[in-house]
Automatic annotation (TrEMBL):
GO terms for molecular function: kinase activity. The chain crosses the membrane at residues 20-41, 53-73, 109-142, 162-187. InterPro entries: HATPase_C_sf, HATPase_dom, Sensor_HK_TwoCompSys, Sig_transdc_His_kin_sub3_dim/P. It comes from Streptomyces olindensis. It catalyses: ATP + protein L-histidine = ADP + protein N-phospho-L-histidine. Its EC number is 2.7.13.3. PANTHER family: NITRATE/NITRITE SENSOR PROTEIN NARX-RELATED, NITRATE_NITRITE SENSOR PROTEIN NARQ. This is histidine kinase. Pfam families: HATPase_c, HisKA_3.
Length: 419
């Protein structure tokens, strides 16, 4: 019973009732135009005095309303009204004007439906409440009886007087039921007639996919850049602390490497975060590449005490910019994983070569024990695999060697692959 009462007179039902009354108000000019047309056609001088002619005027006005619904602002305004008053989710409605023929046809159908149902409910809302009030008060107010108000003579009978309040209340309930039903019908049809077209949905899906791709790329950049910097700085500071008294020259080199690492990382971080700041231009720090920054990466890693040997059998200057950038990040993350899991004194071997039209990157280090677990860790290899897959390459990682005492990361990137 409570749900039924909420359906008839709840907040949502009242808002939809207002939406219908607004449709009736919008229908009035078209109704007047229809009456002007029907007057000369039927030869009637009093169209408003005939209920059939009123209905015919209303019917003539609706096709005219359908034509005027082609005005560009019709769909945005109707979508806003359906969202606020009918309770339709915004993502199920198209915010912009109708552009294609199908969208215009659906907008015309919606506008006609809104004004048609709105005109009926608005007319009932004007006529039924006074009539119901008279019927409810009829047994109590003797002055309302008789034919002075145009009421039928049968209402003078005792049994009719007893039933009049019941009929009045039933009329009000019927009005509320019709308004609630028509409001629910409009709410159901709004996404169908005012919703986005398949082209709009495809464009929105593509925009979301592009946004997710950008976010994933930024997440990889932050993980690789900041993660490597923190690992390198931690190892450099730890190594410097241990030899602070015995090897001042090494300490100075480690502090210089820390300074260089943090400065470079802050620049990269600013470049990445600049993309996320709405209205801001991206940061000016250039993306690191294999050609320009590999030597610096290796020297900063060695400053922490790691023994890194690198063999480059390729010309980094000849690599495409995108491939050079992604290859640098892969080498950076490979070194980070080796330092995190094998220790700061680990011997790491890096090989970069061109074979069979592919750029092959291999990072190896000895396995010193089980890999430590880190809260939130485990994204490095996944990021490398994502980078390789986007370039059309492949990634393999795992133990190698006769005794399984090596950890090997091998990435193959096509020299000419998908951008």
């Amino acid at each position: 019973m409570r749900d039924f009462a909420r359906f008839l007179l709840g907040r949502r039902a009242r808002q939809r009732w207002i939406h219908l009354v607004l449709g009736g108000a919008l229908a009035m000019p078209y109704f007047l135009v229809g009456s002007v047309i029907l007057g000369p056609v039927t030869g009637s001088t009093d169209v408003f005095g005939s209920f059939p002619l009123q209905l015919a005027s209303f019917g003539v006005g609706l096709p005219i309303a359908a034509v005027t619904s082609l005005f560009p602002l019709t769909r945005p305004l109707e979508s806003a009204a359906a969202r606020w008053l009918c309770g339709v989710d915004a993502d199920r409605l198209a915010p912009g004007p109708a552009r294609t023929r199908d969208e215009k046809h659906r907008t015309a159908a919606w506008f006609t439906l809104h004004l048609g149902l709105g005109g009926i409910i608005a007319g009932m809302s004007l006529a039924l409440p006074p009539f119901a009030a008279v019927l409810i008060a009829l047994p109590l107010v003797a002055g309302l009886r008789g034919t002075r108000l145009g009421l039928p003579e049968v209402l003078d009978h005792t049994w009719a007087l007893a039933l009049a309040p019941v009929v009045g209340v039933a009329s009000l309930l019927a009005l509320a039921g019709c308004a609630a039903g028509c409001g629910a019908l409009l709410a159901r049809w709004a996404p169908v007639l005012l919703g986005p077209s398949p082209e709009d949905r495809l464009a929105a899906a593509e925009a979301r996919a592009a946004d997710l791709a950008v976010r994933n790329r930024l997440a990889r950049e932050l993980h690789d850049s900041v993660g490597h910097a923190l690992s390198a700085v931690t190892l450099q500071a730890s190594a410097a602390r241990r030899v602070l008294d015995s090897d001042p020259e090494f300490v100075r080199e480690a502090l210089a490497a820390i300074e260089d690492t943090t400065r470079r990382t802050v620049g990269e971080l600013d470049a990445v975060l600049g993309v996320l700041r709405e209205g801001d231009a991206p940061g000016t720090a250039p993306a690191p590449t294999l050609a320009a920054h590999l030597d610096g990466l290796l020297s900063r890693t060695r400053a922490g005490g790691a023994r890194v040997s690198a063999t480059v059998d390729a010309d980094p200057e000849a690599l495409p910019p995108l491939l050079s950038r992604e290859a640098y990040r892969i080498v950076q993350e490979g070194l980070s994983n080796a330092l995190k899991h094998a220790g700061e004194r680990v011997a790491v071997t890096v090989r970069i070569a061109v074979a069979g039209g592919n750029l092959e990157i291999t990072v190896e280090n000895p396995v010193t024990g089980p890999a430590p677990s880190r809260p939130g860790g485990g994204h490095g290899l996944r990021g490398i695999a994502d980078r390789a897959r986007l370039l059309g390459g492949t990634t393999t990682a795992g133990t190698a060697g006769p005794a399984g005492d090596l950890w090997r990361l091998h990435v193959r990137l096509p020299m000419k692959g998908p951008a």
